[in-house]
Automatic annotation (TrEMBL):
Keywords: Ribonucleoprotein, Ribosomal protein. GO terms for biological process: translation. GO terms for molecular function: structural constituent of ribosome. Belongs to the eukaryotic ribosomal protein eL33 family. InterPro entries: Ribosomal_eL33 (IPR001780). Pfam families: Ribosomal_L35Ae. One of its GO terms (cellular component) is ribonucleoprotein complex. This is 60S ribosomal protein L35a.
Length: 127
């Protein structure tokens, strides 16, 4: 009887925790490495051409000038406790009138990266 009386007198308080159902904020935009800047007879491996998602003209590509670019790939051996490696670069300028940009990387991108997805980060912000 005593235990029943104690249970009736005690009230539990339950905290409601808000759950964030939104997707996490992504601070980068997808881009495709279309190839190297080239002419009819030669190509410049130190200048990579990137097609940034939803960028279709020079005026909208100007926003990405100076932004950082990362090519992330997976290697076979561990280095710094991870198999993922990155090659960092920077968008330097536009190329043509349809929104393609030229990026320069610390180490030139390998040819096997042509057609793969890169990340164009939205920093440094010049605004």
């Amino acid at each position: 009887m005593k235990s029943e009386q104690q249970q009736k007198g005690v009230t539990k308080t339950v905290k409601k925790v808000k759950v964030n159902k939104k997707a996490p904020v992504r601070l980068w935009v997808k881009a495709v490495f279309t190839g190297f800047r080239r002419s009819k007879v030669q190509q410049n491996e130190n200048q990579a051409l990137l097609k940034i998602q939803h960028v279709d003209d020079v005026s909208s590509s100007r926003f990405y000038w100076g932004k950082r670019v990362a090519y992330i790939y997976k290697a076979h051996s561990l280095k710094n406790n991870t198999k993922f490696r990155t090659i960092w670069g920077r968008v330097s300028r536009s190329h043509g009138s349809n929104g393609i940009v030229i990026a320069r990387f610390n180490k030139n991108l390998p040819p096997r990266a042509i057609g793969s997805t890169l990340r164009v980060f939205l920093y440094p912000n010049r605004a």
